[in-house]
């Protein structure tokens, strides 16, 4: 904290991991040797660069670009790119740190990294987004590669941005390689990758619910966000018979009294992904937009926070419990504050940290890399089946390491299970 006082999100992520890991480290002192902890909190490399681009009025704009390469202990760096005005080094270090454990949990050979820019794609024309992406990649391309560092999307980086970024990488490197995941189907992408994080989160929640004899069917589910993760979490909840009673964005919450219908979901997809409109524009019977509000005061059985970090605080956690919520599975990265997590754990409800419940996205990115390496294309059913199996395995790993006093502490389970593999690899590779 003294070394980087301006990185609160990074400190929060490290504190959450070390707090739950500590008793395990004391019981297994080999992990306290070799400087494992001191090394694991320091990125192997971080690059910061200028991204100049020209807007539609001919003005020169300058943004900051970053790539944090956190750990390559178990595979090439892997993690998304985020384009959002709130992006800075501390936010990306927190995301890269979380990514190391998450990628390890998938059981696929991927290290951890994260990158992005403080560029805001909202309100920009396609041509402006393309010029920005090309400029961003003109520097980033020398730091990434199919066996070195493989970026993907995140907040503000969807199919359009990945297309522009990949196109520029290919042009500069003069190679068509699997340097990006989340690619379009026409140029090496995997079926089910767009759906994977949202679907995976719901598959994970399904496994948790089995432990208390419940299923998604008939549950009232509050979802936050209305982007990639929220959209497909909503679709899977509906498919499994649950009721999606909310979506949200940075302007407020859409309350859906009788549960989102298939038609309304299609309208949402068109609004967000084609017209790039705001959630408040989604109108119809049973829909009510609540400006400036979060979804957590709505009575629900389950909550899936799928927007951004620290969007669910202690007061929200208490409101959820008071209204009877029994299961919280994080679709976003670190959406719950440390205090909110403590409240859930003390209450003993089912709580899954993002590094476990949102790992389906990066797991399917790993499957995209495998398909590219084999020059093969799996069917949607095949990828979905593997994704489902991976989420069940992550759940098993959390139960294995997280069982205490007759119930499962998923925070502890995910952190220990993710840590062990990375730490063993670091011990084997010496002090590097
Ligand atoms: P998108 O850009 O597609 O959607 C982000 C959503 O979150 C939008 O509805 C956005 O609303 C909302 N949001 C963003 N910032 C804020 C904020 N400060 N306050 C309130 N709402 C906000 O991103 P994704 O769906 O891809 O990502 C969502 C979360 O899931 C992130 O935490 C990401 O790191 C995580 N994640 C994503 C994965 C993926 O595969 N996409 C994989 C694993 C994790 P608005 O339009 O108003 O900004």
Automatic annotation (TrEMBL):
Catalyzes the reversible oxidative deamination of glutamate to alpha-ketoglutarate and ammonia. The record marks 154 as: Important for catalysis. GO terms for biological process: glutamate biosynthetic process. NCBIfam families: PRK09414.1. Residues 190-430 form the Glutamate/phenylalanine/leucine/valine/L-tryptophan dehydrogenase C-terminal domain. One of its GO terms (molecular function) is nucleotide binding. Belongs to the Glu/Leu/Phe/Val dehydrogenases family. Homohexamer. Gene3D superfamilies: Glutamate Dehydrogenase, chain A, domain 3, Leucine Dehydrogenase, chain A, domain 1, NAD(P)-binding Rossmann-like Domain. The lineage of its organism: Bacteria, Pseudomonadati, Pseudomonadota, Gammaproteobacteria, Pseudomonadales. This is Glutamate dehydrogenase. Keywords: NAD, Nucleotide-binding, Oxidoreductase. Coiled coil: none annotated. The active site is at residue 114. The keyword Isomerase does not apply. GO terms for cellular component: cytosol. Substrate binds at residues 78, 99, 102, 153, 365. The keyword Oxidoreductase applies. It catalyses: L-glutamate + NADP(+) + H2O = 2-oxoglutarate + NH4(+) + NADPH + H(+). It comes from the Bacteria. InterPro entries: Aminoacid_DH-like_N_sf (IPR046346), Glu/Leu/Phe/Val/Trp_DH (IPR006095), Glu/Leu/Phe/Val/Trp_DH_C (IPR006096), Glu/Leu/Phe/Val/Trp_DH_dimer (IPR006097), Glu/Leu/Phe/Val_DH_AS (IPR033524), Glu_DH (IPR014362), Glu_Leu_Phe_Val_DH (IPR050724), NAD(P)-bd_dom_sf (IPR036291). It comes from Metapseudomonas furukawaii. NAD(+) binds at residues 197, 228.
């Amino acid at each position: 904290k003294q070394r980087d006082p301006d990185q609160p999100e990074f400190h929060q992520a490290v504190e959450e991991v070390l707090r739950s890991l500590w008793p395990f480290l004391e019981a297994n002192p080999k992990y306290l040797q070799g400087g494992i902890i001191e090394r694991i909190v320091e990125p192997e490399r971080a690059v910061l660069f200028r991204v100049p681009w020209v807007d539609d009025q001919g003005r020169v704009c300058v943004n900051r670009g970053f790539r944090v390469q956190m750990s390559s202990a178990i595979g090439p760096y892997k993690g998304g790119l985020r384009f959002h005005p709130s992006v800075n080094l501390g936010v990306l270090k927190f995301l890269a740190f979380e990514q190391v454990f998450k990628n390890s949990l998938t059981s696929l050979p991927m290290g951890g990294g994260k990158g992005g820019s403080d560029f805001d794609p909202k309100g920009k024309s396609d041509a402006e987004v393309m010029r920005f992406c090309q400029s961003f990649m003109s520097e980033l391309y020398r730091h990434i590669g199919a066996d070195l560092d493989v970026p993907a999307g995140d907040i503000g980086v969807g199919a359009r941005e990945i297309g522009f970024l990949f196109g520029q990488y290919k042009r500069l490197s003069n190679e068509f390689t699997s340097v990006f995941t989340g690619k379009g189907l026409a140029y090496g992408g995997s079926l089910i990758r767009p759906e994977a994080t949202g679907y995976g989160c719901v598959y994970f929640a399904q496994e948790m619910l089995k432990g208390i004899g419940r299923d998604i069917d008939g549950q009232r589910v509050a979802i936050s966000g209305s982007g990639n993760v929220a959209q497909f979490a909503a679709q899977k909840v509906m498919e499994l018979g649950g009721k999606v009673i909310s979506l949200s964005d940075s302007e407020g919450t859409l309350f859906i009294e009788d549960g989102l219908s298939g038609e309304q979901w299609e309208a949402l997809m068109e609004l967000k992904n084609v017209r790039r409109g705001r959630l408040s524009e989604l109108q119809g019977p049973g829909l009510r937009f609540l400006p400036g509000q979060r979804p957590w005061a709505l009575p629900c059985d389950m909550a899936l926070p799928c927007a951004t970090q620290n969007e669910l605080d202690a007061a929200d956690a208490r409101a959820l419990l008071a209204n009877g919520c029994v299961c919280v599975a994080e679709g976003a990265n670190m959406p719950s504050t440390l205090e909110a997590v403590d409240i859930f754990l003390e209450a003993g409800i089912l709580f899954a940290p993002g590094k476990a419940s949102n790992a389906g996205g990066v797991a399917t990115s790993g499957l995209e890399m495998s398909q590219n390496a084999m020059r093969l294309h799996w069917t949607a059913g095949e990828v979905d089946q593997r994704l489902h199996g991976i989420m069940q395995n992550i759940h098993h790993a959390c139960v294995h390491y997280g069982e205490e006093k007759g119930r499962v502490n998923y925070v502890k389970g995910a952190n220990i299970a993710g840590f062990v593999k990375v730490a063993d690899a670091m011990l084997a590779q010496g002090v590097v």
